[in-house]
Structure formats: C-alpha cells, structure tokens
Amino acid sequence: MPGFHIEHFGCRAARADGEAIAGNLRALSEREPFAADVVVVNTCSVTAEADRAARAFIRRAHRRNPAAKIVVTGCYAQRAPQELAAMAGVAAVVGNSHKALTPEIVLDLTRGLDLTRGARGLSSRPQELVPVASLLAASAGQFSASEAQAPIWADDRFAHSFIEDASWGDAPLRPGEQTRPNLKIQEGCGNRCTFCVIPLTRGPSKSLPHAVVRRRVESFVAAGGKELVLSGINLGGWGRDAADQTEVLWSPTLSAEKSGKDGAREICGTGGVGLVRRTLAGLVREILEKTALPRLRLSSIEPMDWNDELIALMGEFGGNRLARHAHLPLQSGSDAVLRRMHRRYRPWHYAEKVDALLRAVGPELTLGTDVMVGFPGESDGEFEETVAFLRALPFGYLHLFPFSARPGTRGWELHSAAQVAPAVVEERMAILRALAAEKRAAHRRRFVGRALEAITLHTPAAIAGRGSTSALTENFLPVEIAGRFRANELLRIQVTGLNAEWDLTASASE
C-alpha cells in the first residue's frame, strides 16, 4: 500500500488543515517522512523564518528520500508558489485557494497520473499564471512563473479553500495522533492588520456551515472523542458571512435570546420572513446543550470578539464542559503601536475583556496572548508600555514573535522606512522571555496541591520510561501524571508539584 506523510508548520488552523487532508487519505498508510511515497508539506508564511523552515524541510526530505513526490500546500504555497515549484523534488504546489483538492492530488500521484491534466478530471487544472502570488513574488524579487517546474494550483478566488466542507469527501473526525483534534470552523480574515499576510494567503472570512459543524462534532463524539478544539483563522468571525444565514418565519415572540440557543443571535427582516444570523456564541451553546461532547476548547479569539454572550458561556460552562482557557492576541500594549498595526482595540479595551473573563470564570482561567516585538518604529517608550501592560495582567503564558516584514503588506513598506535594529529586537525579546517565564511559573505554582481535570495525551518515550503519562489540564496546563494511562482518558488529578520544565506533576485521584 502506498504511504504518505504530512509535515505540519504553523498555527492550529493550519494543523487542522493537515489533519483534514490526512483524514481523506484513508486509502493510504501514514509513514515517517523519509519512508513515504508522497510527502505533504503543510506550510506557514507568517514570518520569514516560517518560510525558511519549510524550504529546509523540503530540501532534507528530497535529499533523504529522493524517490518521494513532494506536495507543498498552505500559506507559503499560496504566497509564492513559483518559488516552491522550482525546488528539487517538488511534484505539485497547492495554494490555500485549492487546498481541498490536496487529497485527490496526492492519490493521483500515487497512481502515477499526469497532474497537468487536472486532478482526476476536475475542472480545477493547474494554473500557469497566479495573479496575486505573482505580484507578491515580484515585490520580493522571487521566482517568475516561467521558472516553475512543478504544476501549481493557486489563484485569488479561494473557491476550494475549505477542506472540511469539500463536497467529494467528509472524513469522520476522530481522536488519533492528536488526542485533542482541531475542528477548523472558520477560514480567512478581512481585518487587514498592517503586519499580516493572511488576508492574501487565505482570502476573505468564510464559515464552515452550521450543519457541517454539528455533524463533525457528533462524529467525533461517536468515535469516542473526549476533547475537541474549535479553531479558525479569525474564529470569532464565524457566522458573519451570509453563507450561513438561515431564512426563518418571523414573529414578535421570537427574541434574539431564544434564537441564540440554536446557533443564532438575531433576526433581520420584516413581513413575516427574516434571516437568522449565526454567531460563535450561539454555536458554542448549541454544541454544549445539544451534543454529548465531554469537553470543548476554544482556540485563539480576537479581543473584541469576546462579547458578553461568549463570556457568559465561559462562566456558565467553564470548568465543566467548556475549558477555562482563553487566548486573546494582544500584539502590543502601546496604544500608538496598536494604531500603526491597524488593530481594532486599544489597551484599555483589552484590559476590560480580561477583567470580564476573570469575573465570569475565576482565577483558574489560563490566559494566553501573542506579543510582537520590533514592529516598525517601536520606540523604547512604546516597548516599555507593552512590558508594563503585560506585567499588570495575569497571563499564564506569552507567545513572543519578532516582527517579520511580509511582502504585499503595509508592514513591508513601514519596515523599509522605520526598521527597528535587529540587536534592539533581540534585547527586547530577551526581556519578554524572562517576563514570560516569570508569568508562567507564578500561574502554575498556584495549582500545586489542587485537584484538576485533565485529558491524557500520547506520551513521549522519555516520560513513559519514567512510568508516567503526559496530559493536559482542562485549563491548559501541561502535566505529567504518575502511572501509565491510555491516551484520550479524562482523569481527575491531584497536583503534587512542578518539574524542571515547570510542567505540573500529579497523581490520579481515586
């Protein structure tokens, strides 16, 4: 039986894309990268380092497994497909615009079919010209279309971007390599932050239809899944696009509150007919009230998308079936920098959302954020504002990133005009790494001696060798449990201490 391997780069949503591709390749066996017939490289392009890491893996895979056919997909494949198509060993480049076709393209490669004739007769044949990507490549001095060797599927229409809703396949969602799989329910983003290439690499916001989400959740429960993570590129925007509105009969007694319990928030229209506009909060309530899913976790949500209804749900279900974990990207604690970033909130808005979440959920909430260092023009004073802001809030972890100029964004131009010196960026990163370690330790110490709920994971050999099991607490803290347990078990644990990596140690409660 032919074998494949998927190498993942990037965010949870990208990981969900890769898991969906793997789920639709059930006719093949999954293998290690250097023993596979087809290697799928699921790329990220949020930074130049992400691009470099993908290229390095492609070169290594081709060097160690020269017979393998390499299929490159993801954000880098959308942004600069010609550059990747020219690399040795690459058999196909599939941008995010055509990602739903990736499983068929992989299957066709294993059958030795001619990809230039299109994937199994579909109308979506490889593109010789890639309008958006060509412009981006030209702006960065990259490869031209004439230099591309492998066929490319990519354009700026994003008609086949949502693999979870691909009409030709709907693989059951089940716990596997990932005990806690991601269900990506939203794709794309229209926020246009000045530093971000995602609107160009993933297109406009698009919601996975409500009925598909419900079916996927129910299939996961039926397969024995215990914890599911809802993810998206801009998760809080789920339901805002017209594609998932539903026509309903209108009556004065059908209030927004009542309709909210069926995945919707408001009624629009007069004359007896209106539209139900679905919201993330309504969807979360429906999953919790109408399915038997043991635990739901929400991935990253923009600060201003934490509305009163969603925060109230965290208070109502948090610690039971809704994980007490909230990730709100900050990027900067400086008002001036946030304005230059074109972020749609100010520091005080962010602090208000955190306060509301803490009041609803309590101190067991694990709060996480993203922080960008060295945005063009960031002064010493603006950086100190960020440090002070981070110190003032009870973060459990910080994801830190140096600014990386991305071709095609406003940030690319700002970087040319007001670059922060690399040495200054590294000095600031060191300061924030120390603060992040301090925050992490303080938050985790609070749970020593406490009882928590946890889900067991696939345990690395080193931990298993100590007779222990890897797990993750309901409020997103890594833990090593004494004893051997199968993956995908929900346990109540007693936290006994912290190890050298600042992970919790625990014993399973009787």
Draw up the topology in text.
Layout: E1 3-8, H1 12-23, E2 29-30, E3 38-43, H2 48-64, E4 69-74, H3 75-79, H4 81-85, E5 90-95, H5 102-110, H6 131-139, E6 152-153, E7 182-187, H7 198-202, E8 206-207, H8 210-222, E9 227-232, E10 246-249, H9 256-259, E11 264-268, E12 273-278, H10 280-290, E13 295-298, H11 308-317, E14 325-327, H12 335-341, H13 347-361, E15 366-373, H14 380-392, E16 395-402, H15 410-418, H16 422-445, E17 451-456, H17 461-465, E18 468-473, E19 478-482, E20 490-498, E21 504-508
Parallel strand pairs: 1-2, 1-3, 3-4, 4-5, 5-6, 7-9, 9-13, 14-15, 15-16, 19-21
Antiparallel strand pairs: 7-8, 10-12, 11-12, 17-18, 17-20, 18-19, 20-21
Please give a structural write-up.
This protein is 34% helix and 22% strand. The protein is of the alpha/beta class and 510 residues long. The protein folds into three domains: 3-165, Methylthiotransferase, N-terminal domain (Rossmann fold); 182-443, tm_1862 like domain (pyruvate-formate lyase- activating enzyme), CATH 3.80.30; 451-508, Nucleic acid-binding proteins (OB fold (Dihydrolipoamide Acetyltransferase, E2P), Beta Barrel). It has a six-stranded parallel β-sheet, with helices on both faces. A five-stranded mixed beta barrel has the order 17-18-19-21-20. The protein has a four-stranded mixed β-sheet with strand order 8-7-9-13, with helices on both faces. Strand 20 and strand 21 form a beta hairpin. The longest helix is centred in the C-terminal third of the chain and has 24 residues, at 422-445. The radius of gyration is 23 Å and the shape is globular. The chain starts with a strand and ends with a strand. 47% of the residues are buried. Residues 119-124, 128-146, 247-262 and 264-271 have low confidence and may be disordered.
